[in-house]
Give the backbone structure.
Amino acid sequence: MNALVRKSLRAGYRHARAVSRHAGLSLVELMVAITIGLLLVLGITTLITQQSSASNELSKSSQQIENGRYAMQLLQDDIELAGYYGEYYNLAAAPATMPDACATAAADLDAAIPLPIQGYDSPSTIPDPLSACLSDANHVAGTDILVIRRTDTTSIPIASAAAGQVYLQSGLDVSLNFSKVMGTGSDTTVFTLKKKDGSLAPLRKYLVDIYYVSPCNVPASGSACTGSSDDNGKPVPTLKRMQLSVSGGAPAFAVTPLVEGIQNLQLDYGIDTDSDGAPDYYTSGTYQQDGATALTTADWANIVTIRINLLARNNETSVGYVDKKTYNLGNAGTVGAFNDGYKRHLFSGIVRVVNPSGRKAK
């Protein structure tokens, strides 16, 4: 082998050894790469967790705002229709005593027509006779109860009346005087009033709506809220409505859960003292303007506006959050701080009781 060939072979051998020495990763390099990879995975996981948490909180807040807005809208719509009795507008004087909100007999319902608005000011226990249809267990103590009386905005022919349903008919009697008749679909012979063309006047369903805050949405017992076992172990305060309806062919009240997460309801009533259709002072529903004289039935008949103060809260707590706020609920004063993990929002607004105030403003 000549010198040139040997030199070439030695050069190739040295190159191969060099390539061999630089091939692959050392243990240190591998550990560094793994560490960097773990840090990247940890960072991505943290980002996803934070985004998920933020999305969850946003969902809770959106639900709370929507619940509060919806509850306000429901109350506003019904308050604006309070005292709507179709064509009948010449109401009698207020009764001597407050009507029984639980009454289902046509005569009792008829006597209560002059009071389209009736309230109970933050009772700690349900007073009689309201306790006959609403129990303490189903009411959050210290929250207001609102009763609204009116008729349906849609009229029906007498032939379509449902058995047991209470209806109001307004029209001309045999002496051609404009009058009204209260009765049920079980005996339509009482509905004899006529329109000006001589045909029988239509009927309007008579409604009594009782709004209140309940400690739970779905009671574990099926009827009464009992505590921690309600709502599958997570009781949620709920705005509910008890409405005059039908059961077994007879008038009866039916309960409907309306909005979850409503923790408190306080109402201030605007009373018109000079018959101009505008409120002259606001009361929580217990005393007159002097703060000492109890409201009379005449005062309740003169309610022309209602100021709604409604406190909504999330259905679930927020991790790391503590509610240290206080909330102004009008004449009822402030509540809080609750020092718990629920986020809350206060909704307030004044609603005109259109029909009573309109009759006064004429």
